[in-house]
Design goal:
It is a single chain. With 259 residues, the chain is mostly helical. It has 11 helices and no strands. 34% of the residues are buried.
Amino acid sequence: MKLAQFVERHPYRFAVILEVAIVAVYLFVGTAAHFLDLSNLALYGLANLGLALGAIVLLTRLKWWQRVGFNSLRQRGGLRYFLIPLVPAILNLIPGAQRASFAQVSVVFVIALLVAFAEETIFRGLMLQAIKPFGYWRAALITATLFGLIHAMNALTGKSGLESALQIGYATAIGFAYAALTLKKEVLWLLILTHFLTDFAFFIQKPGFALPPFWQSVLVVILTIGFSVYGIFVMRQKSDQPIGSARERTQNALKGEFV
């Protein structure tokens, strides 16, 4: 069975396979990083390099580059929708940036770009477009949930149950808002850029800065609610009009026709 036919017939299985593949890559690289005594930053870089290469192969084989959103923004006014997603990047810069050499900044730049590209092309690209023919809300909610669940792996880094739960909820809310923006504007590279700026700002912020645990939790909850509401706001402006049977909708989508 060809890849395109598999995605057409089994979009949910395709999404689950991608989710399992991400977990497997992180576990494999994490194990190797432990024995080689590599930093968490190196772990992120190696894992997402592999995921980015895998996403490139899938997008190329499916011929989905334009379909997932690697095209120009149709209206410049649409840029305003991407201002809210920049809030976490701005918050990450409040403590200021640490002093680092050009080499260190370059490494962080590349790793943040790999993470942004890999996560956006997999969740808001491959997964979202595979499920989209069966309903915009369904696609947004499923991919957001899978994106949130991936962040459950942070519990393995020693974070408490509350911290892990808050991060899962926060990641799910962001995933939902990002999916809504992808469905509405049909452009992905702007979200990759937004995701990159958020991670890059986090990686280069001054070390040692942290809000008291209570206020940090409050901030995460506020952001989670904010992104959830924003995602709903964007989704309500995006028509969801399935046409024909599920199979017909999938076939149309694979031909590049948006329903």
